[in-house]
Specification:
alpha+beta, 26% strand, 3 domains, 266 residues
């Protein structure tokens, strides 16, 4: 039901036929689901008659990402995707299922994994034993956060660089609660770049954080560099200027070095 509410919110209206398209159900079930949706929405939606489309009517609805809508219609192989909704994001996160599932079991069972890991310093790959405690879905790639037995520290490992992964019987003696950079949260204060004109700064602010002069992002310290790279946030206003950078982390000087986080053997 929440999926139908999401479609109604983003498309502005929904009828029985649309429900049948999305869920591949018979007309009777579509009518029942519509009745439940009408009750769920209450005053946030209106309907001219029992057979008319249900129209979204909540002007106070907060701004948020339409990605939830795209995910739903893509999951149901909706005809709109590829029609007039084009997903232009490029996913570079190709991962071997065997590698992922092995790491998943290791995280769940709190054991180690022997991997062959490729890196810039060792492009052919080298053998390492890691003890993973969490997966990280970065904007373009999948990572795993793990204790590295060779480097004796917590590191980020890119799943796409793992040539193989095998479980080992050794228990993880360095769990998540010992990873200080994982546990420590940073607040990034994001503003429009001050080198922009006043009108341009107002436009950027309205696009990214309407009704406010700044946006505060809470991120894990070890993952902050991923957010900064993906959002193309400037850390130094004098060196990183428009048009290449339109947003600035205004409190960058008060934060730890944000590009010192270590990706193992990169």
């Amino acid at each position: 039901m929440s999926n139908l509410e999401t479609v109604l919110t983003w498309e502005g209206a929904i009828d029985n036929e649309r429900i049948r398209q999305l869920l591949d159900v018979k007309a009777v079930w579509a009518s029942r689901l519509m009745g439940e949706l009408v009750k769920r929405m209450g005053r946030r939606a209106r309907r001219a008659s029992a057979h008319a489309p249900l129209e979204f009517a909540d002007p106070r609805s907060a701004r948020r990402s339409p990605d939830e809508y795209l995910q739903i219609v893509s999951h149901h192989q909706d005809r709109l995707v590829g029609g007039f909704v084009e997903d232009a994001r490029i996913d570079l996160s190709a991962v071997a299922p065997q590698v992922f599932s092995t790491l998943f079991r290791a995280v769940k069972q709190q054991t180690g994994v022997q991997i062959i890991y490729r890196s810039m310093s060792s492009p052919a790959g080298s053998e390492r034993i890691i003890f993973p405690h969490a997966f990280v879905r970065a904007p373009r790639r999948w990572h795993v956060r793990a204790w590295c037995a060779q480097r004796l520290g917590y590191r980020d490992f890119t799943l796409g660089r793992m040539a193989s992964a095998e479980l080992v019987d050794t228990l993880n003696m360095n769990p998540q609660d010992g990873d200080a950079e994982w546990l420590r949260m940073l607040e990034l204060v994001v503003v429009a770049h001050p080198a922009l004109s006043v009108a341009q700064q107002e436009m950027i602010a309205h696009e990214y954080f309407p009704g406010a002069r700044a946006m505060r992002l809470r991120v894990r310290e070890c993952l902050a560099s991923y957010a900064i790279q993906d959002l193309r946030l400037a850390l130094d206003a004098s060196r990183q200027a428009p048009p290449n950078y339109q947003l600035l982390v205004s409190n960058a000087t008060k934060l730890p070095p944000l590009f010192s986080q270590k990706e193992s053997f990169s």
